[in-house]
């Protein structure tokens, strides 16, 4: 879409200035009303203590600035017929966004009981931060929002994610000077090195310097102007400054800055799209720096201390209003200073002047469909997994790197979405390290800086997003998903903890959005955790942490899914499933090193459908008799060790009735009432018969398995091996030995736990013990694993 | 300490140039040798396949740059007698730091078997990334290091933390262009706004632009020079550029840049310390930008593809060397290109020329005591907790905000360390929000930007560190602790997840360092988690996450401690303990809202010593008879609800023999073999008698308690209530009701689980049920909690 270019420096005429100011005052009035008022919303009578809420909760400080920005976004959206979103970084200023949504009518369309009149205004006020009402922050409940802004740091990354592959979209993004101090936000400025002016929308950062955080001045707000300007230019922007505390002047300045910014964006787009990305000059994107007082237009002082323009305006500028008559009087003066009688008619409806620059229909910020991305979401044209599946004639005889096989699948998916451009792959400089590089056949890595001859797989229109920041990968992906697209984030397993807190927030968002009928389902956030704990040959202890699974299992079970495919085909089946799913956070853990193929694609699919099942071919159960022991496993390395243990036991103790169970969907272990994928006790007992010892080799920290199964009947018989935080730069087999999860240890565990077997099989056990001992000497001498381990194949020993 | 000023632009004379180049070549040779060689370390015979390691692991790409920097730091340390540390951000370039430590002799002093001769060189080579040897990264095992550089992002924050309160120290910090893309690093640049030129040391950032990460060009390396310069100036630095690929020219340029940087630092210090911080101009600190090729001096090409200067040099520039004769030949040529015969004598000892600029004794980077901070650590002059304890005549009748009481204690501690300056408090703009503001009586918040009249508690010499970045708080604190000082990080409970991964790394560091006899114990890293899940009245769901405790319990038990003091005096007792402790990560969870005082200081202390105990005064056990049920609790809000439940049960069911157990040290629940604080089964069964129902009200996610206790005898009788991820902006009591942890629910749980009681107490249970029902209506109407809840006091109902 093209925008009409207007000469810079345009001033508002008096009517437009008056209209914008009226809208701003109305929004400020409605914001303060939400924080304070329980009744008397239009101040038709003198304010009395009982009109005021008994608990005053909310954040006033940032609110007038947000209202100013919303007012001026309305103006340019209307004037230029823009398709625009706004990400409100200071989302704790919830009253502002709610007030604006109510003014423009999108709130009433979403929540019909909150009518756009005095009765609705009373409801709007009362419900805010009130039990049974709405949260004090921008939240999933807020129309037009894709960003809560509770945990600060992610606004700008969300904005860029929303802009990707939305070439007609403008994403304004308000960044508070507090949020600007966070690491993720500081890194997000460089997102402009990845945004294509041809294929992507534009992001307009609005840095709001109101001077203070909760209790301190903000670092950027106190920088000398020249230093701030260097910084923002160095970050690739052309800053436009809007500064002041006199409303009329600020309105004029803001209108000019908005016009100039949008003109420049239109020019950048025009050049890039006409000349082509290569020929056009590298853009320097505009941004706005808005410097206005914290708590602007609120009480100047309280009890003799300055409030407006200081950190004291952060939350409630006047407290104790019910009991302090002076504060009550001050509150009434403050509210009346907006002249509500000019802004709302006798029935509480906003005046025509207030609404004169408010956009219509889906152009309203509270009604833009991009902010309810499920409305725009289309199912992916997934390739048939069979096209990439590996043939498996016999289990455990061939090796494939699971993620490399997935790479081929993603390559096909990239090819199928080349025109639609609604799928992207995200990773912290690790797509190739994670062996997904086949995807570069169909697309490249997004890159807007210079490209040299020696570079590979870089292009302005690439759909693989790589930057050495998990925060950016996660933030971009969230923004992309929340606006109705699909994606996958591949990460080193240990370093996904970097985004623990972002994942928390996204899960909380999904859990709440799922309960709102008007929020349409989104594509799930899919993690591929690879380069995992067991194979950090290059990097060692710092790169070993399988605890992300534990982290997500603390969260709402309706949102969280965890898969541990044991081989390449199972990974394909899982990928095919998670890319179809909606409103979940799917965590898939899979290795990048060659790993034995156990299941052909059909078997893999039906195994994934069950989520956990007996691998009859791997066990030695007699018909009709319960097994002596169960060897269970979850994860690729544990499966290999468990099967090697089974192999040893079959060979040395052929009379032992052993069952092998593999778990791919970890939530299956939970009781049916605790998770939608949970197994009934009956099904669970069918897999793990009460009274029979279960030796469970698990990919991660072993106690997770205990936590998931603590209420099961045979829990006392469960013995779990996993990663117990022992590691360094060493061989793959030494890693499992150090953590007591190796094949010999597992086999010894079985011997130790089957009643009577320890004595009978003492010599077998001793030989296993000896191999482990021999291992320690061998690796110190040779630096490689024992030949019998390195050369092991399923069934070979048994046949021999 | 003063440094002699030298005129800028000094060139190296030929002898010094030759000496520096020899040192650099020696370090490069030793680095490549570590990655490749198993034998023949001095290349005294032609290189054969069996001289090469079977598994090639390590990172060559960054290594020559690190060696260059080390060589030139040696020069200026020697020339100026500097007390200096270096933080190696690209710590995966471990071979470089090991090579330099071996050259300067600090390695042999630390590990006498790795002698500074041919035999030792052979050991140095062999052990690298070899089973039983040393990790491939800089690690606790590496002399002179306080930073692993495995998970990238924290180098600069560590460097600033090391510099704080070390006015004589220079902390050089190498930042890779990959790491520079991370959020935490991007935020860390602003640390210079918190560093006092009077009281703190200097940080010299060296941004190493070698162009590529693992697989991609780096964002900063590809910026146009002018844009990069604006960025670094905007970040408050005066950059000095060293660029090239011709060694002699780069040596000259690097020497000039180092001299100029150190001269400027000396001037800044001199001005600030002579004129005073207020009068001196705000410093613009120097930094160095080093632009050299990735894998510099390594193989230019491999199999026809460029390696040197590209991402292909990141790890192993020549692979498959044992089996590929061409690669073997290339490796030998490469190694011989450093002319080892000039660098080492016939017995493998470094030549006098190589060592001519290496500093002596503790001035060596591998031997500086600041990098083994325990050597410098002094016990804190802790104030007596009794000075701040609150009087408790009867339990549950008075209220105090625990963190406010702790604030008074910390204030005294700040006063007692005013001269020593070895204790700091860290927090993300939340010290006052967390109610610790009494600390400002003794010190202020560190702030180097402009201070306005309206500001409070800001000063250049303040020892409270506040910035809106948990990453910076954590990184600074880690650097401060690792160099032998003390600190406390207070955080909103939910947002401490932002540093989950940093905590992982620090715990891994401590776990490894504890096993090294030469690493001396450090002060523990102490977290105060407050503004916790149950009291997010202002902020709601996004601010509710008690899962950090789960996160740390996955880590090495020898390092992790978790405390949940139930009231103010218990918090004081815990604080007194954790501030004395060494080499732990202590997580203390406590509320900032007024909470009932249960224990006087003596009782609090003995309760903390036990870690978990029966509160006889709160129960109703008969002598000699086992209780009918146990009500257990951990955390301030759960304790309040459990005691209110006990109160209800005493009043309505006086015949019930109820035991109340409070747990303050959560690891006590673990078995004795699993954690140093773990309880024996006998002690555990003494608290929680097998066969008796236990209703456990826990502060966080309930399944953690199951995980800690799954092997205990009475586990089947354990029923845990906690946070189950339900929340919004609402009242305190509504929060516990939403999560089924309220007093009525707990009392009903007891009734439901004591055999036979449900029938007998049906009417009592019904009344409790009714109150919960009434609560829902009440809060929706009034917005406040039920009067009987808000007005509850321990024992009042029983007496009445």
Describe this structure in words.
The structure is a homodimer of 800-residue chains. By secondary structure, chain A is an alpha/beta fold. The first copy, chain A, folds into 3 domains: 14-348, Thiamin diphosphate (ThDP)-binding fold, Pyr/PP domains (Rossmann fold), CATH 3.40.50; 385-595, Thiamin diphosphate (ThDP)-binding fold, Pyr/PP domains (Rossmann fold), CATH 3.40.50; 612-799, Rossmann fold. In chain A, 36% of the residues lie in helices and 13% in strands. Chain A contains 27 helices and 22 strands. In chain A, the strands form 6 sheets. In chain A, strands 12-9-13-14-16-15 form a 6-stranded parallel β-sheet, sandwiched between helices. In chain A, strands 1-2-3-5-4 form a 5-stranded parallel β-sheet, with helices on both faces. In chain A, β15, α17 (568-578) and β16 (585-589) form a beta-alpha-beta unit. The longest helix of chain A is centred in the first third of the chain and has 29 residues, at 247-275. The model of chain A is unreliable at 1-8 (pLDDT under 50). Chains A and B meet through α7, α8, α15, α21 and α25 of A and α7, α8, α15, α21 and α25 of B.
């Amino acid at each position: 879409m093209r925008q009409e270019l207007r000469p810079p420096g345009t001033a508002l005429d008096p009517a437009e200035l008056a209209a914008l100011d009226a809208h701003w005052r109305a929004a400020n009035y409605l914001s303060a009303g939400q924080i304070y008022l329980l009744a008397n919303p239009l101040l038709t009578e003198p304010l009395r203590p009982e009109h005021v809420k008994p608990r005053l909760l909310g954040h006033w400080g940032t609110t007038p600035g947000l209202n100013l920005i919303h007012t001026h976004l309305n103006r340019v959206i209307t004037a230029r017929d823009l398709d625009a979103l706004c990400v409100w970084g200071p989302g704790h200023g919830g009253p502002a966004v709610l007030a604006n949504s109510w003014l423009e009518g999108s709130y009433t369309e979403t929540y019909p009981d909150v009518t756009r009149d005095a009765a609705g205004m009373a409801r709007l006020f009362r419900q805010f931060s009130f039990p049974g009402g709405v949260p004090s922050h921008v939240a999933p409940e807020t129309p037009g929002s894709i960003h809560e802004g509770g945990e600060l740091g992610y606004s700008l990354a969300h904005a860029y994610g929303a802009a990707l592959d939305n070439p007609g979209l403008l994403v304004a993004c308000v960044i508070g000077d507090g949020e600007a101090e966070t690491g993720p936000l500081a890194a997000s400025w460089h997102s402009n090195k990845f945004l294509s002016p041809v294929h992507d929308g534009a992001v307009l950062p609005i840095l709001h310097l109101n001077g203070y955080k909760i209790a301190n001045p903000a670092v950027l707000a106190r920088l000398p102007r020249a230093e701030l300007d260097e910084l923002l230019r160095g970050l690739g922007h052309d800053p436009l400054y809007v500064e002041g505390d006199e409303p009329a002047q600020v309105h004029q300045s803001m209108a000019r800055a908005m016009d100039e910014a949008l003109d420049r964006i239109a020019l950048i787009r025009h050049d890039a799209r006409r000349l082509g990305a290569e020929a056009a000059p590298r853009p320097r994107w505009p941004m706005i720096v808005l410097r206005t007082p914290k708590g602007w237009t609120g009480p100047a002082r309280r009890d003799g201390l300055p409030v407006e323009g200081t950190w004291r305006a952060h939350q409630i500028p006047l407290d104790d209003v019910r009991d302090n008559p002076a504060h009550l009087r001050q509150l009434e003066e403050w509210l009346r200073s907006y002249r509500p009688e000019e802004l709302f008619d006798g029935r509480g409806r906003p005046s025509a002047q207030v609404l004169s620059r408010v956009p219509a229909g889906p152009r309203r910020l509270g009604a833009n469909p991009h902010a309810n991305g499920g409305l725009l979401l289309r199912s992916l044209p997934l390739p048939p997994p069979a096209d990439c599946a590996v043939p498996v004639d016999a289990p455990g005889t061939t090796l494939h790197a699971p993620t490399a096989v997935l790479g081929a699948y993603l390559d096909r998916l990239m090819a199928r979405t080349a025109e639609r451009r609604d799928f992207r792959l995200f990773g912290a400089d690790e797509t190739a390290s994670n062996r997904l590089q086949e995807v570069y056949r169909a697309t490249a890595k997004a890159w807007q800086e210079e490209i040299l001859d020696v570079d590979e797989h870089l292009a302005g229109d690439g759909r693989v997003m790589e930057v050495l920041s998990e925060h950016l990968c996660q933030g971009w992906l969230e923004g992309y998903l929340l606006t109705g697209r699909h994606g996958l984030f591949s990460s080193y397993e240990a370093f996904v903890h970097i985004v623990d807190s972002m994942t928390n927030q996204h899960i909380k968002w999904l859990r709440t959005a799922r309960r709102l009928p008007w929020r349409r389902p989104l594509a799930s956030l899919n993690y591929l955790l690879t380069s995992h704990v067991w194979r950090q040959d290059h990097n060692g202890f710092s790169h070993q942490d399988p605890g992300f699974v534990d982290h997500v299992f603390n969260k709402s079970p309706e949102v969280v899914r965890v898969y541990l495919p044991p081989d390449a085909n199972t990974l394909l089946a899982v990928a095919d499933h998670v890319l179809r799913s909606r409103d979940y956070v799917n965590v898939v853990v899979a290795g990048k090193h060659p790993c034995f193929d156990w299941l052909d694609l059909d078997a893999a699919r039906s195994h994934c459908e069950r989520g956990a099942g007996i691998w009859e071919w791997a066990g030695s159960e007699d018909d009709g008799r319960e097994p002596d022991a169960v060897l269970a496993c979850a994860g690729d390395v544990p499966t290999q060790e468990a099967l090697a243990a089974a192999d040893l036991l079959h060979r040395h103790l052929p009379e032992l009735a052993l069952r092998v169970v593999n778990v791919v969907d970890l939530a299956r272990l939970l009781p049916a009432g605790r998770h939608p994928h949970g197994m009934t006790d009956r099904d669970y007992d069918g897999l793990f018969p009460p009274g029979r010892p279960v030796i469970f080799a698990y990919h991660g920290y072993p106690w997770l398995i205990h936590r998931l199964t603590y209420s099961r009947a045979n829990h006392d018989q469960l013995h779990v091996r996993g990663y117990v935080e022992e590691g360094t730069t060493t061989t793959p087999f030494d890693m499992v030995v150090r953590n007591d999860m190796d094949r010999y240890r597992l086999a010894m565990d079985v011997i130790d736990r089957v009643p009577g077997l320890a004595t009978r099989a003492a010599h077998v056990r001793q030989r296993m013990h000896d191999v482990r001992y021999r291992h320690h000497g061998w690796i110190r001498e040779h630096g490689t694993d024992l030949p019998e381990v390195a050369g092991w194949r399923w069934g070979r020993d048994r046949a021999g």
